[in-house]
Amino acid sequence: MLMEGRPVISDKCDVAAAAKLVGLGYPAVGDILPELFTWIQDGNWPVAQIVAPFLASIGPFAVPEIWKVLRSDDLLWKYWCILRVIAELPLDSAVEFETELWRMANSPSEAERLEEIDKVAAHALECLASRRGK
Question: What's the CATH code of the domain at 113?
């Protein structure tokens, strides 16, 4: 269900539209979560700075889309999703990814290692452990 008059992010620098969408909150933007995830494909994009913290904040509602990213072949997208979303998720949602993070940190594919997925996965695991108090 599209909301009448809802802003649309037009490019990687459209921070005004990104901020307005984030301001609508969840569930108002629930139907466009897949689109919002595309804006974190490069964490250096200005809109990613706004969208990623929001995606992390919605916890369990972001989980299905995070799995889509992790199952994709886009290593850069995985990198940023792990670093900016998974590492910042509430603990009860982040544990969903613990096994996959452990695999990436300890047995990455050659491509994952070259893109430093192993390093961001290890960082995300450290974030989980610190939130657990370990």
Answer: 1.25.40.750
